[in-house]
Please model this.
Amino acid sequence: MDTVLHYLAPEKGNNYLDLTAGYGGHAGAVLERTLNSAGATLVDRDDYAITALQQKFAKPGPRIIKTDFYQAAKKMAGEGKQFDMILADLGVSSLHLDYPERGFSLKADGPLDMRMDQSQELSAAQIVNTYSLADLITMLRVYGEEPHARRIAELIIQHRPFNSTLELAEIVRKAWPFGSKVHPATRTFQAIRIAVNDELGLLEKALPIWIELLSPGGRIVVISFHSLEDRIVKRAFSALAGNRYDATLKLLTKSPVTGSHDEIVSNPRARSAKLRAACKIKI
Model:
Protein backbone atom coordinates (compact mmCIF):
# COMPACT_ATOMS: atom_id res chain seq x y z
CA MET A 1 0.00 0.00 0.00
CA ASP A 2 2.74 2.47 0.96
CA THR A 3 4.58 1.83 -2.31
CA VAL A 4 1.43 2.42 -4.35
CA LEU A 5 0.72 5.67 -2.53
CA HIS A 6 4.33 6.78 -3.00
CA TYR A 7 4.14 6.51 -6.79
CA LEU A 8 0.56 7.76 -7.15
CA ALA A 9 1.45 10.72 -4.89
CA PRO A 10 -2.19 11.70 -4.24
CA GLU A 11 -2.85 15.36 -3.52
CA LYS A 12 -5.99 17.15 -2.37
CA GLY A 13 -8.43 17.59 -5.24
CA ASN A 14 -6.81 15.00 -7.57
CA ASN A 15 -9.00 12.85 -9.83
CA TYR A 16 -8.50 9.08 -9.44
CA LEU A 17 -9.29 6.09 -11.67
CA ASP A 18 -9.02 2.61 -10.15
CA LEU A 19 -9.42 0.04 -12.91
CA THR A 20 -9.46 -3.03 -10.64
CA ALA A 21 -11.00 -1.63 -7.48
CA GLY A 22 -11.85 -4.91 -5.71
CA TYR A 23 -12.90 -4.29 -2.11
CA GLY A 24 -11.71 -0.67 -2.34
CA GLY A 25 -8.57 -0.91 -0.22
CA HIS A 26 -6.39 1.22 -2.47
CA ALA A 27 -9.28 3.54 -3.32
CA GLY A 28 -10.04 4.20 0.33
CA ALA A 29 -6.43 5.14 1.07
CA VAL A 30 -6.19 7.41 -1.98
CA LEU A 31 -9.50 9.19 -1.33
CA GLU A 32 -8.49 9.89 2.27
CA ARG A 33 -5.74 12.03 0.78
CA THR A 34 -7.53 13.61 -2.17
CA LEU A 35 -10.79 14.39 -0.35
CA ASN A 36 -12.33 14.20 -3.80
CA SER A 37 -14.67 11.20 -3.93
CA ALA A 38 -16.75 12.87 -6.62
CA GLY A 39 -13.70 12.98 -8.89
CA ALA A 40 -12.98 9.25 -8.56
CA THR A 41 -14.09 6.38 -10.77
CA LEU A 42 -13.87 2.79 -9.49
CA VAL A 43 -14.07 -0.11 -11.93
CA ASP A 44 -14.42 -3.86 -11.49
CA ARG A 45 -16.03 -6.65 -13.51
CA ASP A 46 -16.85 -8.78 -10.47
CA ASP A 47 -20.34 -8.64 -8.93
CA TYR A 48 -18.96 -9.24 -5.42
CA ALA A 49 -16.57 -6.31 -5.85
CA ILE A 50 -19.28 -3.95 -7.09
CA THR A 51 -21.46 -4.79 -4.08
CA ALA A 52 -18.54 -4.26 -1.70
CA LEU A 53 -17.66 -0.90 -3.28
CA GLN A 54 -21.25 0.33 -3.13
CA GLN A 55 -21.37 -0.55 0.56
CA LYS A 56 -17.96 0.95 1.37
CA PHE A 57 -18.44 4.30 -0.33
CA ALA A 58 -21.62 6.07 0.65
CA LYS A 59 -23.45 8.29 -1.81
CA PRO A 60 -22.62 10.82 -3.05
CA GLY A 61 -19.29 9.19 -3.66
CA PRO A 62 -17.10 7.86 -6.46
CA ARG A 63 -18.56 6.69 -9.73
CA ILE A 64 -18.70 2.87 -9.72
CA ILE A 65 -18.73 0.95 -13.01
CA LYS A 66 -19.15 -2.80 -13.53
CA THR A 67 -17.16 -3.83 -16.58
CA ASP A 68 -13.63 -4.92 -17.50
CA PHE A 69 -10.79 -2.40 -17.50
CA TYR A 70 -10.65 -2.24 -21.29
CA GLN A 71 -14.33 -1.42 -21.79
CA ALA A 72 -14.13 1.05 -18.90
CA ALA A 73 -11.14 2.80 -20.47
CA LYS A 74 -12.94 3.10 -23.82
CA LYS A 75 -15.97 4.54 -22.05
CA MET A 76 -13.88 7.11 -20.15
CA ALA A 77 -11.99 8.10 -23.31
CA GLY A 78 -15.26 8.50 -25.19
CA GLU A 79 -16.45 10.86 -22.48
CA GLY A 80 -13.26 12.92 -22.72
CA LYS A 81 -12.25 12.11 -19.12
CA GLN A 82 -8.77 12.67 -17.75
CA PHE A 83 -7.31 11.61 -14.42
CA ASP A 84 -4.42 12.69 -12.22
CA MET A 85 -3.91 9.12 -10.98
CA ILE A 86 -4.63 5.74 -12.56
CA LEU A 87 -4.13 2.40 -10.80
CA ALA A 88 -4.46 -1.12 -12.21
CA ASP A 89 -3.80 -3.98 -9.79
CA LEU A 90 -3.90 -6.99 -12.12
CA GLY A 91 -4.53 -10.69 -11.73
CA VAL A 92 -6.44 -12.79 -9.23
CA SER A 93 -7.15 -11.26 -5.82
CA SER A 94 -8.34 -12.34 -2.39
CA LEU A 95 -11.79 -11.42 -3.68
CA HIS A 96 -11.60 -14.54 -5.86
CA LEU A 97 -9.42 -16.81 -3.72
CA ASP A 98 -11.55 -16.34 -0.60
CA TYR A 99 -14.54 -18.03 -2.23
CA PRO A 100 -13.92 -21.67 -3.29
CA GLU A 101 -17.13 -21.62 -5.34
CA ARG A 102 -15.43 -19.20 -7.74
CA GLY A 103 -12.99 -21.95 -8.79
CA PHE A 104 -9.73 -19.98 -8.54
CA SER A 105 -8.14 -21.62 -5.50
CA LEU A 106 -5.92 -24.69 -5.35
CA LYS A 107 -6.45 -24.98 -1.59
CA ALA A 108 -10.18 -25.68 -1.54
CA ASP A 109 -12.43 -27.65 -3.85
CA GLY A 110 -14.79 -25.78 -6.10
CA PRO A 111 -16.35 -25.81 -9.58
CA LEU A 112 -14.17 -25.20 -12.62
CA ASP A 113 -15.27 -21.62 -13.09
CA MET A 114 -12.54 -18.91 -12.84
CA ARG A 115 -14.71 -16.21 -14.42
CA MET A 116 -13.99 -12.76 -13.03
CA ASP A 117 -17.19 -11.59 -14.70
CA GLN A 118 -19.74 -14.24 -13.88
CA SER A 119 -22.08 -13.04 -16.62
CA GLN A 120 -19.72 -14.22 -19.36
CA GLU A 121 -20.23 -17.62 -20.98
CA LEU A 122 -16.68 -19.03 -21.20
CA SER A 123 -15.56 -20.84 -18.04
CA ALA A 124 -12.65 -23.03 -16.99
CA ALA A 125 -14.85 -26.13 -17.36
CA GLN A 126 -15.45 -25.40 -21.03
CA ILE A 127 -11.75 -24.92 -21.70
CA VAL A 128 -10.63 -28.03 -19.80
CA ASN A 129 -13.35 -30.28 -21.19
CA THR A 130 -13.56 -29.12 -24.82
CA TYR A 131 -10.20 -27.70 -25.97
CA SER A 132 -8.21 -29.85 -28.38
CA LEU A 133 -4.85 -31.30 -27.40
CA ALA A 134 -3.03 -28.71 -29.53
CA ASP A 135 -4.98 -25.81 -28.01
CA LEU A 136 -4.36 -27.04 -24.46
CA ILE A 137 -0.62 -27.37 -25.11
CA THR A 138 -0.44 -23.88 -26.60
CA MET A 139 -2.41 -22.36 -23.72
CA LEU A 140 -0.25 -24.05 -21.07
CA ARG A 141 3.01 -23.09 -22.79
CA VAL A 142 2.12 -19.49 -23.60
CA TYR A 143 -0.01 -18.44 -20.63
CA GLY A 144 1.44 -20.75 -17.99
CA GLU A 145 5.03 -21.07 -19.22
CA GLU A 146 4.53 -24.67 -18.18
CA PRO A 147 7.52 -26.97 -18.93
CA HIS A 148 5.32 -30.09 -18.86
CA ALA A 149 2.61 -28.64 -21.08
CA ARG A 150 2.30 -31.61 -23.44
CA ARG A 151 2.13 -34.21 -20.65
CA ILE A 152 -0.46 -32.20 -18.71
CA ALA A 153 -2.57 -31.67 -21.83
CA GLU A 154 -2.46 -35.41 -22.57
CA LEU A 155 -3.52 -36.23 -19.00
CA ILE A 156 -6.41 -33.77 -19.23
CA ILE A 157 -7.61 -35.34 -22.48
CA GLN A 158 -7.34 -38.84 -20.99
CA HIS A 159 -9.25 -38.09 -17.78
CA ARG A 160 -11.92 -35.59 -18.76
CA PRO A 161 -14.60 -34.57 -18.14
CA PHE A 162 -13.55 -32.68 -15.00
CA ASN A 163 -16.00 -31.07 -12.63
CA SER A 164 -13.92 -29.62 -9.78
CA THR A 165 -10.68 -27.76 -9.13
CA LEU A 166 -9.10 -30.39 -6.87
CA GLU A 167 -9.97 -33.13 -9.37
CA LEU A 168 -8.02 -31.26 -12.05
CA ALA A 169 -5.16 -30.36 -9.69
CA GLU A 170 -4.62 -34.01 -8.73
CA ILE A 171 -4.39 -35.11 -12.37
CA VAL A 172 -1.92 -32.31 -13.16
CA ARG A 173 0.20 -33.42 -10.19
CA LYS A 174 0.89 -36.70 -12.05
CA ALA A 175 2.91 -34.77 -14.66
CA TRP A 176 5.31 -33.76 -11.86
CA PRO A 177 6.43 -37.12 -10.39
CA PHE A 178 9.21 -35.49 -8.36
CA GLY A 179 7.10 -32.57 -7.17
CA SER A 180 7.91 -28.88 -7.42
CA LYS A 181 8.60 -25.90 -5.14
CA VAL A 182 5.08 -24.59 -5.73
CA HIS A 183 1.95 -26.66 -6.23
CA PRO A 184 2.40 -28.58 -9.51
CA ALA A 185 -0.90 -27.21 -10.85
CA THR A 186 -0.07 -23.54 -10.19
CA ARG A 187 1.01 -22.78 -13.77
CA THR A 188 -1.88 -24.77 -15.23
CA PHE A 189 -4.44 -22.85 -13.18
CA GLN A 190 -2.77 -19.57 -14.14
CA ALA A 191 -2.94 -20.46 -17.84
CA ILE A 192 -6.60 -21.45 -17.66
CA ARG A 193 -7.52 -18.32 -15.69
CA ILE A 194 -5.77 -16.06 -18.20
CA ALA A 195 -7.55 -17.80 -21.07
CA VAL A 196 -10.97 -17.62 -19.41
CA ASN A 197 -10.67 -13.90 -18.70
CA ASP A 198 -8.61 -12.85 -21.73
CA GLU A 199 -6.29 -11.08 -19.30
CA LEU A 200 -3.36 -10.49 -21.63
CA GLY A 201 -5.47 -9.52 -24.63
CA LEU A 202 -7.41 -6.94 -22.63
CA LEU A 203 -4.22 -5.55 -21.12
CA GLU A 204 -2.58 -5.12 -24.55
CA LYS A 205 -5.60 -3.18 -25.83
CA ALA A 206 -6.23 -1.19 -22.67
CA LEU A 207 -2.78 0.18 -21.83
CA PRO A 208 -2.60 2.79 -24.64
CA ILE A 209 -6.03 4.08 -23.61
CA TRP A 210 -5.01 4.30 -19.95
CA ILE A 211 -2.08 6.48 -20.93
CA GLU A 212 -4.39 8.62 -23.07
CA LEU A 213 -6.61 9.12 -20.01
CA LEU A 214 -3.75 10.58 -17.95
CA SER A 215 -3.82 14.34 -17.47
CA PRO A 216 -0.51 16.21 -17.99
CA GLY A 217 1.62 15.42 -14.96
CA GLY A 218 -0.65 12.48 -14.08
CA ARG A 219 0.77 9.24 -12.65
CA ILE A 220 -0.07 5.68 -13.63
CA VAL A 221 0.76 2.61 -11.53
CA VAL A 222 0.33 -0.95 -12.81
CA ILE A 223 0.90 -3.97 -10.56
CA SER A 224 1.35 -7.31 -12.31
CA PHE A 225 1.84 -10.79 -10.92
CA HIS A 226 3.63 -12.75 -13.62
CA SER A 227 6.23 -12.09 -16.28
CA LEU A 228 3.77 -12.06 -19.20
CA GLU A 229 1.83 -9.12 -17.77
CA ASP A 230 4.96 -7.30 -16.68
CA ARG A 231 6.45 -7.65 -20.16
CA ILE A 232 3.39 -6.02 -21.73
CA VAL A 233 3.48 -3.12 -19.26
CA LYS A 234 7.22 -2.61 -19.69
CA ARG A 235 6.90 -2.56 -23.48
CA ALA A 236 3.97 -0.11 -23.46
CA PHE A 237 5.67 2.30 -21.06
CA SER A 238 9.07 2.11 -22.78
CA ALA A 239 7.54 2.78 -26.22
CA LEU A 240 6.36 6.20 -25.02
CA ALA A 241 9.28 7.14 -22.78
CA GLY A 242 12.97 7.82 -23.24
CA ASN A 243 15.34 10.64 -24.05
CA ARG A 244 13.69 11.82 -27.25
CA TYR A 245 11.63 14.75 -28.48
CA ASP A 246 8.32 12.89 -28.88
CA ALA A 247 8.31 11.12 -25.51
CA THR A 248 4.99 11.40 -23.68
CA LEU A 249 5.88 9.43 -20.55
CA LYS A 250 8.57 9.69 -17.91
CA LEU A 251 9.38 6.38 -16.24
CA LEU A 252 9.20 6.55 -12.45
CA THR A 253 10.48 2.96 -12.15
CA LYS A 254 13.29 1.88 -14.47
CA SER A 255 12.85 -1.70 -13.27
CA PRO A 256 9.86 -3.27 -11.52
CA VAL A 257 9.48 -2.61 -7.81
CA THR A 258 8.88 -5.78 -5.81
CA GLY A 259 7.30 -6.26 -2.40
CA SER A 260 9.27 -5.54 0.77
CA HIS A 261 9.84 -8.24 3.38
CA ASP A 262 7.13 -6.77 5.63
CA GLU A 263 4.63 -6.64 2.76
CA ILE A 264 5.32 -10.27 1.84
CA VAL A 265 4.90 -11.41 5.45
CA SER A 266 1.55 -9.61 5.79
CA ASN A 267 0.40 -10.48 2.26
CA PRO A 268 2.02 -13.55 0.64
CA ARG A 269 0.50 -12.51 -2.72
CA ALA A 270 2.98 -9.58 -2.72
CA ARG A 271 5.81 -12.08 -3.25
CA SER A 272 5.22 -12.12 -7.01
CA ALA A 273 4.02 -8.53 -7.38
CA LYS A 274 5.85 -6.25 -9.83
CA LEU A 275 4.99 -2.56 -9.80
CA ARG A 276 5.76 -0.18 -12.65
CA ALA A 277 4.94 3.53 -12.63
CA ALA A 278 5.13 6.40 -15.10
CA CYS A 279 4.20 10.07 -15.32
CA LYS A 280 2.58 11.90 -18.24
CA ILE A 281 4.97 14.61 -19.42
CA LYS A 282 3.60 18.14 -19.32
CA ILE A 283 3.91 19.80 -22.71
In short: The domain at 100-197 is CATH 1.10.150.170 (DNA polymerase; domain 1).
